[in-house]
Amino acid sequence: MKLPFAAPLAGVLFCLFSISAEAQGWPSKPVRIVVAYPPGGGIDVMARQLADKLTPAWGQPVVVENKPGANTIVATDAVAKSPADGHTILMTTDATFSINPHLYAKLPYDAQRDFAPVTMLVLLQQLLVAHPSLPANSLSELISLAKARPGAINYASYGSGSQPHLAGEMLKNKAGIDLVHVPYKGISLAVPAVVAGEVQLTFAGIATSMPQLKAGRIKALAIGGAARSPLLPLIPTFTELGYPEVETHAWFGLFVPAGSPREAVARIQQETRKILDEPDFRQKQLVEKGYEVVGSSSQEFVIYMRRDSESRGRAVRISGAKAE
């Protein structure tokens, strides 16, 4: 996939990486992939799958270490303070670099200065889903209903400044409607809350939503992204419905401490991309779960992150979100 906002590489901050003779000495010891989330979630599963495949490729153990906490800050700070030798890799989401710098008045690291982006692995778009009892079967019907009943419809998120919160507030702002935000304490709680009828709406990934959609326990009204998902071709995007500012995406990416050897960064990017391009892995582990495979170059990732941070910064300001 070609990243959105990709530009010619001339003038990009990061020079083109190539594997030189120096790279033959890396890795010289076990490599850690520090995951900023608890075990068991989608990002953790992907990290362990990558580690299993990278271990024989690199001839060194590649181990996954989960460091959840403080909205990814615990893991990010730990990696920022690790030796810049290419043997410690941070695997995290857009929350760390696109949202947190706008959400927190102070962080224990500099998100731009202290890290070198390696690659965006995958992009995920979220669905706007509703309880079946909600008398709206499309985004336009939802907006009309919300205008007729201001403050009567609520939506779940997993905290102030989370992707569902920012998407919900952008929808409110652009559509001129009043929805009530109901924050839950974790990603795994929002969709069950809609299924149980505790709230009427939420934004959730395809993998999380699909079993409930198939069972008729929720219904989908719209999805983020520039194009419809091949897994749900009948669900229109916010962009085609006239609300391109409602961004529901998340991404998984790899980072190393700033100053890590260029050759190590190049090998991490290139060999990770090879895994993402394996047909069986790509189809069964990524595409069928609703992931859009990216495998970007470092330069493309830098460009994308700059634009993503700007758009998420606008969303945070509109939402009035504060770090909890």
In words, what does this structure look like?
There is one protein chain. With 324 residues, this protein is α/β, with parallel strands linked by helices. The protein has two domains: 21-124 and 250-319, Bordetella uptake gene, domain 1 (D-Maltodextrin-Binding Protein, domain 2, 3-Layer(aba) Sandwich), CATH 3.40.190; 126-223, D-Maltodextrin-Binding Protein, domain 2 (3-Layer(aba) Sandwich), CATH 3.40.190.10. The chain is 37% helix and 19% strand. It contains ten helices and eleven strands. It has helices at residues 42-58, 73-80, 94-103, 139-148, 163-175, 187-195, 206-214, 262-276, 279-286, 298-319, and strands at residues 31-35, 62-66, 88-93, 115-124, 126-130, 153-157, 179-183, 201-205, 219-223, 250-257, 291-293. The strands form two sheets. Strands 2-1-3-10-4-11 form a six-stranded mixed beta sheet, sandwiched between helices. It has a five-stranded mixed beta sheet with strand order 7-6-8-5-9, with helices on both faces. Helix 1 links the parallel strand 1 and strand 2 (62-66). Helix 3 crosses helix 10 (298-319) and helix 5 crosses helix 10 (298-319). It is globular. The two termini are 35 Å apart. The model is unreliable at 4-23 (pLDDT under 50).
